[in-house]
């Protein structure tokens, strides 16, 4: 598989270059230039296959010439000591839980794969540094995945505010390979600094800088694997179409699902489940995309007014506009409908969801009642552990939620290694002083 820029650059790069250099010149993002039909690798897989086995089987065919079966097995086993779980609720509905990793969010899957594959790609041949912007638990997920990876240092940029969940034993001054740096500014400042550092090629080449954010296609691409996993687990139970209902904020999960479809996954469509921000509702209906002011909701991870994957979605639509507009069905779910969905999932199926997963659940129910253009089995992506919103959910359901110890640890405050102004020279100086 080769990759190109979304800016219509004719230059093709390998998976290794796309991962280790992260961003093409200009303002584009890397996307697959062509996709291998992977149906022979997953259509006939055994129902009992584990997630690492699936990843190990699919990756060599996907990345032909870059990861052989032995390398792919090492990556899969190294990355995943956790896996998704498919829960079939009835003949028409299943839920795929993606919060079984160390920080209780779907991001753990992509970040874990990226860390393991980077270690394999530079094995005995070099070094790398991931520079990533973090809010919420993203920084913990990055730290956990990259800790003790040979030849890799992980720099994590935080905006103003408390930093939580990091273990100081991981830090570089304590013999680890993690460097948390706080910026006197916003999350947008952190993202800007990541891009500026990568585009400063002399500096980036000196330290081997890439990113563990979703701008790196090496983090986004492996999210397609859990769509394949869901199909393998549910295929013997479905007789009609297969549809996925996806909570959408930055739209990375939707992009990954579209990649899975390009790999040959036999599905009929996606429900793009958005909260009141409804970032791409007009775009999916064929209208011009126009950013709106941000709305604060009870599904905060979906509170995005200008999704970072816009360029990748545009690239899909430019390739096959008619096909894409008949595959992605936008649904907007407000706060009240989200709370109702939480309660209904509990009463009807004894299923506890977080608010983001409830947005996808409500969208799936609404679409099924509306008839849509197809009828079939819907798989709802549950992207966050409900215990992360324990107080809100307990109040709605009238049931106490048990909080796993790994999630309790995410509340511990941590001091950064450095506190700097939101300027590139300050960041470069902080990195130089730590390495």
Can you offer a commentary on this structure?
It is a single chain. This protein is an alpha/beta fold. It has a domain at 83-105 and 222-404: Rossmann fold (3-Layer(aba) Sandwich), CATH 3.40.50. The chain contains 19 helices and 16 strands. It has helices at residues 15-21, 39-42, 51-62, 69-79, 107-121, 138-146, 187-199, 201-207, 217-220, 225-234, 252-262, 281-284, 310-319, 321-325, 335-349, 355-370, 390-397, 405-408, 424-434, and strands spanning 2-5, 13-14, 30-32, 85-88, 93-97, 128-133, 152-158, 163-164, 178-183, 209-210, 241-247, 269-274, 328-332, 376-382, 413-414, 418-420. A 6-stranded mixed sheet has the order 4-5-14-11-12-13. Strands 10-6-7-9-16 form a 5-stranded parallel sheet, with helices on both faces. Strands 2-1-3 form a 3-stranded antiparallel sheet. Strand 6, helix 6 (138-146) and strand 7 form a beta-alpha-beta unit. Helix 3 crosses helix 10. The radius of gyration is 21 Å and the shape is globular. 48% of the residues are buried. The model has no long low-confidence stretch (mean pLDDT 92).
Main beta sheet = 6 strands, mixed
Mean pLDDT: 92
Shape: globular
- The N- and C-terminal alpha carbons lie at a distance of 34 Å
Beta content: 15-25%
Task: Determine the CATH topology of one domain.
Answer: Rossmann fold
Q: DSSP helix count?
A: 19
CATH hierarchy class name of one domain: Alpha Beta
Q: Structural class, from helix and strand content?
A: alpha/beta
The CATH architecture of one domain: 3-Layer(aba) Sandwich
Assembly state here?
A: single chain
């Amino acid at each position: 598989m080769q990759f190109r820029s979304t800016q219509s650059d004719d230059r093709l790069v390998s998976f290794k270059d796309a991962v280790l250099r992260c961003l093409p010149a200009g303002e584009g993002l890397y996307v697959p230039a062509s996709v291998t039909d992977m149906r022979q690798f997953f259509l006939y897989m055994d129902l009992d296959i584990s997630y690492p086995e699936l990843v190990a089987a699919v990756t060599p065919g996907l990345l032909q010439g870059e990861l052989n079966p032995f390398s792919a097995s090492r990556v899969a086993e190294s990355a995943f000591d956790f896996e998704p779980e498919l829960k079939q609720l009835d003949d028409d509905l299943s839920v795929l839980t993606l919060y079984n990793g160390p920080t209780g969010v779907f991001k753990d899957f992509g970040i874990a794969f990226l860390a393991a594959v980077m270690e394999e790609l530079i094995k005995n041949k070099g070094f790398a540094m991931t520079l990533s912007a973090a809010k919420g638990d993203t920084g913990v997920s990055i730290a956990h995945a990259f800790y003790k990876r040979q030849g890799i240092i992980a720099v994590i940029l935080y905006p103003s505010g408390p930093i939580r969940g990091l273990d100081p034993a991981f830090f570089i001054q304590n013999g680890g390979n993690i460097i948390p740096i706080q910026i006197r500014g916003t999350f947008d400042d952190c993202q800007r600094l990541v891009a500026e550092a990568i585009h400063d090629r002399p500096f980036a080449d000196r330290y081997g800088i890439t990113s563990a954010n979703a701008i790196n296609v090496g983090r986004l691409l492996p999210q397609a694997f859990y769509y394949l996993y869901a199909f393998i687990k549910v295929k013997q139970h479905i007789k009609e179409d297969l549809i996925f209902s996806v909570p959408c904020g930055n739209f990375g999960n939707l992009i990954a699902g579209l990649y899975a479809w390009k790999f040959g996954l036999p599905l009929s469509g996606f429900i793009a489940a958005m909260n009141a921000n409804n970032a791409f509702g007009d775009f999916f209906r064929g209208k011009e995309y126009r950013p709106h002011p941000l709305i604060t909701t009870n599904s905060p991870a979906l509170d995005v007014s200008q999704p970072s994957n816009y360029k990748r979605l545009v690239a899909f639509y430019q390739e096959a506009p008619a096909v894409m507009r008949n595959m992605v069905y936008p649904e907007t779910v407000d706060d009240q409908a989200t709370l109702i969905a939480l309660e209904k999932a509990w009463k009807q199926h004894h299923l506890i969801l977080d608010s983001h997963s409830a947005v996808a659940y409500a969208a799936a129910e609404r679409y099924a009642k509306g008839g849509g253009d197809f009828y079939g089995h819907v798989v709802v992506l549950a992207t966050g552990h409900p215990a992360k919103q324990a107080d809100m959910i307990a109040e709605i359901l009238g049931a106490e939620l048990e909080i796993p110890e790994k999630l309790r640890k995410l509340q511990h405050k941590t001091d950064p290694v450095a506190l700097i102004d939101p300027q590139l020279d300050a960041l470069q100086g902080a990195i130089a002083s730590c390495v």
